[in-house]
Amino acid sequence: MKKFINNPEDVVSEALTGFVDCYSNYYEKHEEVNGVLLKNRRKDKVALVIGGGSGHEPMFSGFVGKGLGDAAACGNIFASPDPGTIYETAMAVENSKGVLFVYGNYAGDNLNFDMAEELLEEDGVKSTHVRVWDDCASAPKDRLTDRRGIAGDLFVVKIAGAACDAGLELDEVKATAEMARDNLRSIGVASSPGQIPGLDKPTFEIADDEMEYGMGIHGEKGIERTKMKTVDEITEYLYFNIKKDMEINSGDEVCVLINGLGSTTILEMSIAYRKLKELLDADGVQVHDSDINSYCTCQEMGGFSISILKLNEELKKLYDMPCYCPYYAKEGK
Amino acid sequence: MKKFINNPEDVVSEALTGFVDCYSNYYEKHEEVNGVLLKNRRKDKVALVIGGGSGHEPMFSGFVGKGLGDAAACGNIFASPDPGTIYETAMAVENSKGVLFVYGNYAGDNLNFDMAEELLEEDGVKSTHVRVWDDCASAPKDRLTDRRGIAGDLFVVKIAGAACDAGLELDEVKATAEMARDNLRSIGVASSPGQIPGLDKPTFEIADDEMEYGMGIHGEKGIERTKMKTVDEITEYLYFNIKKDMEINSGDEVCVLINGLGSTTILEMSIAYRKLKELLDADGVQVHDSDINSYCTCQEMGGFSISILKLNEELKKLYDMPCYCPYYAKEGK
């Protein structure tokens, strides 16, 4: 696997430098750690700090923006940022109204973000967290907290960012972000692996005519490997698995994300969306807003996921607030 | 190559249906042809119609929006839209102030867009065109009109869209878009091919340790095939080739796009941007704005291109006007 890199060890620091250089109208890099900070951010609100391992770009660094994250703490590729990075990143953006951390539910992230919260507490800075576990393929329904966070992270960041902007207090922002998380399910399919720069093997192996449902965004094992199917069949399978997990009724309003894992094209994902819309229409479910993009990738992995966020009045109001960053902009309604 | 499709023959029509379904808050599909139309568009200005072959998503359908294209005429994969499609798409959005077509400089597109212009003329609708030929690897400097259009299309669409919004007349919009085109150069590098859905072979072959400079976005032959190099070496090569072709002086202001061809990650392109910024800084060139994204793809092709737009006062003013579509939003300055 050919990669456009220099020294594999420098990938994350060089990429963060370039990323912040490119978007220097919006971002600055933390002077000491791998944290991306929003310039000209509001200082009168709860600070939203997001983060996790690198390698999933634009997630998380690309979701720092107005009405989104105030900062992102970035780890090495597929590795949690260390507690010091998280702590310093949070300290750089906290405004004495407290810090909400939003991140994917992985053991390393949980441990390191918790340690950062302890460090903040020692400094008298209030903080709390919402762990996203939207991947309904990664553990059974009665073990929600064992599930992984995948592309649905974006919806929780969007809602939490809007709640911060709306002036809610820390415990209210947390409750709202949890509401988004609990109304959200995702599931994906993979057809080819990604590869970490510098390693000589991809994250998994799969035959030329096979695909696997439910794989994670680091190549974690899924729930079923089969021969390649049509995208209509795949979309039905994914949607029915989400419906098995979350009640979706006629009259419900939802937001939908079809997320590419790296090398799957907008063309292919648009075909999937077409089928999904048919299925939602047949169920009487109304789509409030939707996106097709590669927001949470696993390097150049092939495949995509479907995320569905069920709205209620509160979530809809927050979803409809505007947000802006170079990778994700909503005009607001 | 596994693709997420149904019947290969239905890829473009199914994808366009899904794409327009997904962004139905913004777009509608032309009832008869493969045209994407902006809803709620301004009716008091020159209509900007963009288009070309499908398979490069989000280019072109994804650049229909406020301050961007009013509509996109979409061909089959890597094939120009037919004259009827272009004509009908233009007729659906023209406002009696004339139509400007912006598209990449390819024989098929040139022929079909010209024929559509003749059809419009028969109906008494004024139209003209700007062909984008930003790829400086595709023909020598004294044969500009033999060059191909690649990712730099986006800059010409941005400037033309802003010129339309600013209320310029058709001939002025054309002159402005040509000014953008003439101040723009791009060049790319490829490391792996893309594949058209339904075909059993990729667009080209390349060894596991090789890359090629100057390849086109349909896999057209480039200017030099070599062993894989570091991204810093590649970035220097690309920048120096642009500088050989276009005068860039200390004090100049530029906009920069690093465009991924499909499977190349934001992480990798960010490292390239870091090097490019060093080189521009050393030359005393100021970056006014920049992006790292996969805006003009060749299915899941590996590689990226650098596009540089040299600004003058007029181009800068137009570039700084706001625009919005789901794939490309600028807040304006």
UniProtKB/TrEMBL annotation, chains A, B:
InterPro entries: DhaK_dom, Dihydroxyacetone_Kinase
Pfam families in UniProt: Dak1
Keywords for this protein: Kinase, Transferase
Taxonomy, superkingdom: Bacteria
Any one GO biological process: glycerol catabolic process
Boundaries of every DhaK domain copy: 7-328
Keyword Transferase: yes
Gene3D superfamilies assigned to the protein according to its UniProt record, in alphabetical order: Dihydroxyacetone kinase, domain 1, Dihydroxyacetone kinase, domain 2
GO cellular component assignments: cytosol
Single GO MF descriptor: glycerone kinase activity
The protein, known as: Dihydroxyacetone kinase DhaK subunit
Species whose genome carries this gene: Hespellia stercorisuis DSM 15480
